[in-house]
Hints:
The protein is mostly helical.
Amino acid sequence: MPGLAPASVDEKALLVGYLTQQQDAFRNAAYGLSDEQAGQKAARSDLSVGSLVKHAASVQTGWRRMIEQAPALVVHPGTMEEAQERWASEHTWLPGDSLAVALARLDAESAATSAAILAADLNTSVPVPQDVPWFPKDVPAWTVRWVALHLIEELARHAGHADLIRESIDGATMYELMAGREGWPATPWLTPWQPATS
């Protein structure tokens, strides 16, 4: 994928193009990492490239279900304590986690989320679940359009986290990783990333 989202006069195609660009950013950040490197942290938090890949898949699952079930209200299963445990798990690279498995889940969820947006009426009301403490209590509903834009914003924020963490691991940056992953030819201003040789 080029470094910029594709231009389109179709609103859904434009939204999905931007969403796809952010989904792809996680694959670029993870490119060439081992499972051990995927769990390396750069700060005091438990965030790593691997845990961000897990979170990018999980967050899309929740919002996609809201799109698919709209205009019905989605009731989140389980207790708030169980939700917090799931949240902690997806923000942590656990022993036995596999980058290949996490990326496969991300790919599947990314495709399903894009398909859900393309199939939906962007003006459909998406009721705001009132059992989620960080959701607004004075807003009865969003629209599918709002949800799509929110997903782009959330994935972009976390893709930036993944870029910084990846750079702290081996110095690799987004464009050289993208070039290496997609097989771009080397140019005077960009050398595609390759694994270091010993």
